[in-house]
Specification:
227 residues, Rossmann fold, 41% helix, WalR-like, 4-stranded antiparallel sheet, single chain, alpha/beta, phosphorelay response regulator activity, 5-stranded parallel sheet, Arc Repressor Mutant, subunit A
Length: 227
């Protein structure tokens, strides 16, 4: 699924068949996946891989899933889903106390796991879903749509990329050269004045007649000011 591109998931389980099944399934959904078969390997891999979500088996030889969870939660912003072979209230409470964000009992359906992963992404990493709200702007990269004051703007593909770049970098002065490089590409062979043409069109569509939204700083470039 396109909106999930770039989401990293770490799987830690000592059962190779489960690891392989989950790895293939999650990769088919568009996730980046790394696997480990023991807790210590999982901890070391997490430092390098920097996953958004860790799916941990509770019962593993050596370092169990509880300890892995505790250490991962200390290391940064990572969502943890615990897996267990039995539904023990005591285990669930222990995992949640250590910082686990969700708990699943084996056997479970892959569809349910996906639903739990989506929930964790929405709660922990909403920007990864492709929609960002900044001031009166809503940028939805999944639909390639930008809304301003709850009105979807009719934009060409280039207008979309230009306005997205300006909005995401709001408050910064962006030169024509920088805009050409980031929006049109470093190998663009046209004139810098193309930026002025597109800025004029965006102002019309934003009803920014007084240039208070997209400001021109003479000799420097453009800046979007959010209110």
């Amino acid at each position: 699924m396109r909106q999930l591109k770039g989401v990293k998931i770490l799987l830690v389980d000592d059962e190779p068949t489960i690891l392989q099944f989950l790895e293939l399934g999650l990769q088919n959904e568009g996730f980046e996946v790394e696997t480990a078969q023991d807790g210590m390997s999982g901890i070391m891999l997490a430092k390098q891989f920097q996953p958004h979500i860790a799916i941990l088996d509770v019962m593993m030889p050596g370092m169990d899933g509880f300890e892995v969870c505790r250490m991962l939660k200390k290391s940064g912003n990572i969502a943890v889903i615990m897996l267990t072979a039995k539904e023990e209230v005591e285990d669930r409470v222990k995992g949640l106390t250590l910082g686990a964000d969700d708990y699943m009992v084996k056997p479970f359906s892959f569809e349910e796991l996906l639903a739990r992963i989506h929930a964790r992404i929405r709660n922990h990493f909403p920007n990864l879903l492709g929609e960002v709200v900044m001031g009166a702007f809503r940028v939805d990269d999944r639909r390639k749509e930008i809304s301003y004051e709850n009105r979807v703007l009719e934009l060409s593909p280039t207008e979309y990329e230009l306005l997205k770049f300006l909005v995401i970098n709001h408050g910064l002065v962006l030169s024509k050269a920088t805009i050409l490089d980031k929006v049109w590409g470093y190998d663009f062979g046209g004139e810098e004045n193309i930026v002025e043409v597109y800025i004029r069109s965006l102002r019309d569509k934003l009803n920014d007649k007084e240039h208070k939204l997209i400001r021109t700083l003479r000799g420097s470039g453009y800046r979007v000011d959010l209110t």
